[in-house]
Amino acid sequence: MATSNKSIYTALTANLLIAVIKFISGITTSSSAMISEGVHSLVDTANQLLLLLGIRLSKKSPDARRPFGYGKELYFWSFIVSILIFGIGGSISIYQGIIHLRNPPPLEDPTWNYIVLVCSLFFEGTSLYVAAREFNKVRGDQSWWGAIRLSKDPPSFLVLFEDSAAVLGLIIVGTLIYLGHHFNNPYLDGIASLLVGILLTIVSILLARESRSLLMGEGIDPATHKKIAQLVGKDPAVKKVINLFSTYQSPEEVMLLIVVAFNELDTDEINEAISRIRASIQEVYPLVHYIIIQPAPA
């Protein structure tokens, strides 16, 4: 799944605009829930910038220090983003909620909050629509969760998760602000902030788990692993495929290490077989950029 910058730029623009109006609203009306939402949007804005940085760094050409390229920069920065969602967004929202539950400020006219929430919902909803549409183009016939689990392109599902959490958070805040004023209960504002913090924490854990798996060296799926082993085994020079290891260097680069037992051949024939096997794999699987074939006894 190739990284789509369109969804990232859309989310960046939306979050930056929303963060400004949320902070103005939160400070004006002394709403902890709105301030928490402002922090949430500000963190999301920083996250989009970090994702763009990761994409840019991952495109650097291989050099002496990184002979296999800089593709894993994308996985590193995606992991940092997932941690920031909890470390800044979730923790500050929970802190704001606790503070306002202990000392709830008096309720003020919520009209401005409602205007901000409606505008934010429009911007976040638009960003979510773009992210879902871009992800839907590459998920094929897989389920949404299945496509996320199998995706090797963190920005695509990071933006999707962030925007989904943002829309859900806005619904929570809007509902509890309304109920707080309807029942004249100032504590509901603090509860809204707590719920937003818990939501961000859950999203952070899910994203960190997926990003960590890729950063640690996640390989190709078992079905593709089996097909490549079968493809190698069909070569007339191969007696047996002993083992096959793989890891994603980036969403578009896979490295393979194949341990092969060859028939009784001389050195030149083995070298020809290795070149032939590499070409056959790359013809069917163009994402496989690095192929190391290790001859071994059967």
Describe the structure.
By secondary structure, this protein is mostly helical. The chain has two domains: 5-215, Alpha-lytic protease prodomain-like (Up-down Bundle), CATH 1.20.1510.10; 222-295, Alpha-Beta Plaits (2-Layer Sandwich), CATH 3.30.70.1350. It is 69% helix and 10% strand. It is built from nine helices and three strands. Strands 1-2-3 form a three-stranded mixed β-sheet. α2 runs parallel beside α7 (187-215). The relative contact order is 0.13. It is a multi-pass membrane protein. InterPro entries: Cation_efflux, Cation_efflux_CTD_sf, Cation_efflux_TM, Cation_efflux_TMD_sf, SLC30A9. The chain crosses the membrane at residues 7-27, 33-53, 74-99, 111-132, 157-179, 191-208. Its main location: membrane.
In brief:
The chain crosses the membrane at residues 7-27, 33-53, 74-99, 111-132, 157-179, 191-208. The protein is mainly alpha-helical. The protein has helices at 5-29, 32-58, 72-102, 111-139, 144-150, 154-182, 187-215, 222-233, 267-284, and strands at residues 238-250, 253-262, 288-295.
